[in-house]
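Replying to the earlier thread about multi-chain prediction with a worked example.

Input:
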Amino acid sequence: MDRHTLVLGEQEGAAAPSAPVDAMERRARYFEVRELVTIGIFSAVIRVSSLLVALIGGGMNPLTLILKNLVFTSLLVVMLHKVRKFGALTLFIAVNTLVSMLLMGGSVVLLPAMLAAGLVAEGIILLLGGYGRTMALMLGVAAYDILFKVGSLGVSWLYAREQPQMLVMASIFIAVGYLGSLAGLFAGSRFVRELRHAGIVRD
Amino acid sequence: MIELADVTYSYPHQAAPAVEHIDLRARPGQAILCTGASGSGKSTLVRLFNGLAPHFFKGGLRGRVRIAGADTADLSLARISRQVGTLFQDPEHQFFALNVADEIAAALEWQGLATGEIESRIAGVADRFGLRDILEASVHDLSEGQKQKAALAAVLAQRPRVLVLDEPTANLDPEATLELAGILGTLKADGIALVVVDHRLYWLEGLIDEAVVMENGRVAHRGPFADLRDDALRTRFGLRAVAVNDPRQTLPPLSAEAGRVSGQNLCFSYERDRPLLDGLCFDLPAGGVVGLLGPNGAGKTTLARLLVGLLRLNAGEVRIDGRPVRPSELLTRTGIVLQNMDHQLHMRSVRQELLTAAGTTRSLHTVEEAERMLVRFGLAHLAERHPQSLSGGEKQRLVIACGMIRHPEVLILDEPTSGLDGRNMETIARSLDEFAREGGVVLVISHDLELLEKTCTHRLDLAGHPRRA
Amino acid sequence: MRASFAISSGGTTFLHALDARTKMFVGVAASLSVIFLNTPQSLGFLAAASGAYLLVLRRFALAGVCYLFLLLMAGAALGFMWLMHGIWPRMAEPDLARFSIPFLRTLVLANVVLALALSSRIQAVLAALRALRLPVWLFVPTAVMIRFIPSFLKDIKEVRESMKTRGYGSGPAALFSRPMLTVRLLFMPLVVRALRTSDELGVAAELKGVGNRNAASCYRPQRFSGRDLAVACGALCVLTAAFLLQSGPSLSGGMH
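Result:
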């Protein structure tokens, strides 16, 4: 390569150009800062979107439940197209569970369950061809969402075990919500196609 | 100090280079201006100067970019940014912290500086930019001018030797713009090399040592700032004016004659006992383009929201053609183009966006009308493009077209030309003029003196509005 | 809660002066404890103590609204269970005494979360997060998330306004009559905004050198005060008392 020509491809990630640079500041991290920022931004948008759906949907009703889940999984699919790395989903989950735990009264016991759900989902993504395949991402998110819901139900049992009928109610809500989650996978995939067309998301 | 030597740069996945064979140099205490129409390669120059291209955006770079003799290819982005500070157009989206002091401290903390050193640097820039009183203020509560100053302070706290400013005045009012010019003058005197990329030119007289005009990714003209006084040159490259009059005092005030749209004793407050509007009366004439003026916090945007029914008055009424109109009805009879364009674009194509906007009105609009709008706003060749893929000027034209296709009786525009080049500004000014000539009422909130001068027939100044007797 | 953080302003109460980490600790300790507590007495005691903790803020009206909402939710849950019992008699009839236990758990959590949300500025929460010395890969996304929730709330308002001005409703009626179009109108701008903000903030982060070191220095170090220690000890005492109340000989209970 010409000494005066510097070419950095998209796939090179944080790899430095071949030059004597101060190593401490240029050391490669697994996640680049921009990817960490993207995960943080999408975590915020997903939280806020749930609030928005509740606002416009007028509270607890099947359509609100479906839409809330639809928006959640579709935004997650978009995020995973933007940060295509093993661990992105698990980190997203870790951030959300941490915030939930520290600031929103979320249960500590949810953390290991959620992390396990994330790792299983990422394993599925890898098995199905990795982060480069939309179908693998969709199935990974679908798996994560069901594991997340089962885990949440388990935690709900801890809080409402004296009145287990409440869990029947929660299970119905979860089942209805999961219909939205599945629809969200396709909505997210369509969003991504459209964002590619707009040049906002690139392969 | 900073030098681009025969630089050609291409973004990843793009066949054509974004800029080609660029030779530019800014020495300590020297200020260079890069201007040109939208898409001419100015933003790429900013990214080359501050190292984002290619360190962040990847892509291919030929030639050399040197800072104080060191090739930026050999430096990390963090190291480059300590020498080359960058001030962006909209600092709020880039604030990491929520208050001014923490934002200034952020980069210093990541450099690992000691607490005492950080405090001393914060105190230094706060004194220099008059930020002492707002160090603990939330970034959300600052005026645009204060945000720009806070961002500049955060950059200068890192003590860079080069300062790159990307459209720094796009969101500033004329007073804040002149204040920024003064600050840049002192930085230049301190030996900092300045690279200013901007469409607005009038504020740069006396500051710029060399002006560079970009076209299609190449330097099309370079010379002293005085060269830009040539009308033919500015017209050729779609540039804005070098000297502008301030029409805010010279525009005639609204007359007392009954207008098509009138506000009768309008009262509004966000907090009890602190009225923002108190008995405001005005008449907006049909066929007029009225500049809504006033200092920050005077209630310009609030009045706009009241007139379109997004907010409800505490007292008073809005009348159209002499009849009082309820807020819900106002929403269907008026139109507003808000500042953030991205929030107003929803559909898959430009054509669909227009048709969707037209489809919600009571009157029947046809596909032909949308096609006419596409031609009128120079968007016909972009009809199938995704709205979010358009340039800033194209998006602004589209949201205005979407506002007009509903045939509102009053059209209100909030800063419709910020960050736009001369050609786009002319197109928008012309379209507002046409809308008014067809009998509509236009109300413009803008800091853009050129737009006010070109389009406005009257002014409504909230600084001295008539109050209840 | 999210909105509460956004609107929390400076206050003068005892709780406002506490370090956010102390309030987080109280919240986490409460959420963990209520799993193990399972008698109305112990949970009732904890609900009363946490209620007193919340009322230090003197936001009586807001607390009242939140309690009313909790009661409504509890009423809805009870109603649903009665309905289920009516449709499917094999499902046990709801028992008010047993139902009070999960309700009290929720009440305890609501009290501690509201106390944190209404007395902590987001800036303080961010500072507390930094003081927790999280690794960069966890700190950066968490801080960005908390920092940008208020910004996105503002965006939602603007997107809804933009819909109104185009003649679209953004309430339940619009959602039920045209769900897909409404979702598109609401979320397309938000998705685009999220992606653009990610890019812009990513650039800013790179230029500020965020993440270049394992830990940034801190020009406003967080320090615990005597009152933080007092509140943390007080919280532990209250929790101990609640556990003692549960395991006391005169009361039935214990973890099943």
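Residues 1-9, 250-256 of chain C have pLDDT under 50 and may be disordered.

Feel free to reuse this layout for your own posts.
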